[in-house]
């Protein structure tokens, strides 16, 4: 069973402090999503470390119940 967009967003918000999360269902099938995650905790982290933090928040669901996630991360603009 595919993951709901709200569930993905909730998991990311719970694990990434202060995260603003936008989830888009790319194919309308509940399996292919895009996520934009903006958090002050990303400051000073490489893009790879930012993405790893988001994937860790999903608790190993990538490649299983969550088939594909196009990920964009950023630090909030002041």
Give short descriptive properties of this protein:
single chain; about 80 residues; alpha+beta; GMP Synthetase, Chain A, domain 3; 3-stranded mixed sheet; 2 helices; about 30% helix; about 25% strand; globular
Summed up, what is this model?
Helices cover about 30% and strands about 25% of the residues. The chain has helices at about 5-15, 45-55; strands at about 20-25, 30-40, 70-75.
**Helix fraction by DSSP (H/I, runs of at least 4):** 25-40%
Strand-residue proportion: 25-35%
| Count of individual domains | 1
Structural class by sheet pairing and helices = alpha+beta
Give a topology summary.
Blueprint: H1 5-15, E1 20-25, E2 32-38, H2 47-57, E3 68-74
Parallel strand pairs: 2-3
Antiparallel strand pairs: 1-2
Helix pairs in contact: 1-2
Your description of this structure?
Helix content is 28%, strand content 26%. By secondary structure, the chain is an alpha+beta fold. The protein has one domain: GMP Synthetase, Chain A, domain 3, CATH 3.30.300. The chain has a 3-stranded mixed beta sheet. The protein is globular.
């Amino acid at each position: 069973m595919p993951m709901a967009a709200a569930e993905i967003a909730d998991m990311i918000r719970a694990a990434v402090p202060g995260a603003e999360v936008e989830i888009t269902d790319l194919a309308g099938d509940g399996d292919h999503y895009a996520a934009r995650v903006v958090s002050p905790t990303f400051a000073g982290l490489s893009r790879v470390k930012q993405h790893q933090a988001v994937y860790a928040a999903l608790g190993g669901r990538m490649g299983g119940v969550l088939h594909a996630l196009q990920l964009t991360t950023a630090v909030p603009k002041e």
